Amino acid sequence: MKGRDAKPHIGIFGRRNNGKSSLINSLAEQEVAIVSNEPGTTTDPVKKSMEITDIGPVVMIDTAGMDDTGELGKKRVGRTREVIRTIDLGILVLAENRFEKEEAAIIEQLNKWEVPYLVVHTKSDLEAASVRVREKVKAETGLEILEFSSLHPSNREALIGHIKSAIPETAYMSKSMVGDVISQGDLVLLITPIDEEAPEGRLILPQVQAIRDILDNDAIAVVAKEREIDSLLKRLSPKPALVITDSQVFKKADASIPDDIPLTSFSTVLARYKGDFENYLLGTPKLSTLQNGDKILILESCTHQVSCDDIGRVKIPRWLSSFTGMQLEYKVVAGLDKVPGKITDYSMVIQCGGCMITRKQLINRLKPAIDAGIPVTNYGMAIAYMHGIYERAVAPFVKLDPNSLTYL
User: Fold this and answer.
1) Is the N end or the C end of the chain the one with fewer CB atoms within 10 Å?
2) Residues 164 and 259 in one domain
3) Across 334-375, where does the E strand assignment appear?
4) 9-14, strands of its sheet edge to edge
5) Do 354 and 235 fall within a single domain?
6) Which of 147, 171, 195 lies at the terminal end of a domain, its last residue?
7) What is the pLDDT of residues 232-266, one digit of tens each?
8) What's the CA angle centered on 44, arms 125 and 333, to 5 degrees?
């Protein structure tokens, strides 16, 4: 599954023919998922968009039955389990009072990836959840079973209420990107190069998000290309309260922007907005400790056409090899694809800004590395560090110890 949608993701899990697709149709009040009495109708995870009052747009992920059989069935179950690390809420669907090892395996994965979940017993018009199963679910999960019938969905609103209560607010309530470091009426300068990677006729998503956030905080956004900055600064009044630059021109921006004006990058802003900023701060200085032969894992959050000067695949490896003076190996993984080999094969993980994925997807993308003690950083923070302007790049958000460049 590629993480190309930043709306909250809700995964539906259960055995074949347990009514997972019917549950989605009932919640959406329309036939968005194919329903059949034939077991195994859903063969791969399928995304369905819908609206939930007070939450807004969400993505429901209909998954293959976790009791699928055969070699192909094992692959489908594997794809189902991969979905878990990409979602904000799980719904485990039971039917016919079955709660056995397959259900326990899903719960184990939900707990591993710290995903909140609900347990729903469907087809309650045919058979309600027994006392035995209720007690077993309560003992293993601490949760009460929610009864539901897609044929007679009288408690649909109650189930939606439980979904609202269970899904973390952080999944659908966005915090401000820079609202805590600017004030009403402040002028914020955005440096946005227009190069071969910029989409024709449009700005890239982080730039658009930053402009909207600045306007939402009643401040003023001024957008310019890097070659206009020197002359623009002579005309701007008042001077900018903050400058945000594309990471690729960080060095030029640092030279052009006076020291008394805070300077950071779009990627650094995203690192704090939706990334694991604390672990980025811990991991970034480890770039100085890399040795010959170390493997570097570069994580992109989306798939895109690769240019000859691609930031993740070309520029960062070139800068890092020059900065360290070491012979390093690089592996780039796009979207939410599997990381090849073991995570412990890598000495450093460099994550992009993550504008195309949810915060949960980004955090869980990094979790295996962090759990294994492998340093992680972010495109913008790594670029700033390699160019000697790391302390300035994070200064709008955190104070560093000037001796160790670790945060205080």
Assistant:
1) C
2) no
3) 348-351
4) 46-52, 56-62, 9-14, 89-94, 117-121, 146-147
5) no
6) 171
7) 999 998 999 999 999 889 999 999 999 999 999 99
8) 140
Please name the residues in contact with 125: beta carbons below 8 A apart, sequence gap of 6 or more.
Answer: 149, 151, 152
Contact 45, 83 (CB under 8 A): yes
- State the helix-helix crossing angle for 266-274 and 379-386, rounded to 10 degrees: 130
Q: Which of 268, 289, 310 is the last residue of a domain?
A: 268
Q: Has residue 38 got a pLDDT over 60?
A: no
Query: 41 falls in which pLDDT band (50, 70, 90)?
Result: very low
Spatial contact of 243 and 261, defined as CB atoms under 8 Å apart: yes
* Residues 341-387 pLDDT 10s: 999 999 999 999 888 888 888 999 999 999 999 999 999 999 999 99
Instruction: Give the angle 232-233-234 at the CA atoms, nearest 5°.
Output: 90
How far apart (Å, rounded) are the C-alpha atoms in residues 379 and 88? 25
Residue 4 has pLDDT above 50, yes or no: no
- Higher-confidence residue: 128 or 172? 128
Both 150 and 225 in one domain: the answer is no
- Separation of CA 234 from chain center: 39
pTM of the model: 0.76
24 within 8 A of 48, measured Cβ to Cβ: yes
Q: Let me know how many helices (H) and strands (E) the chain has, helices first.
A: 14, 14
* Domain around 110: 9-171
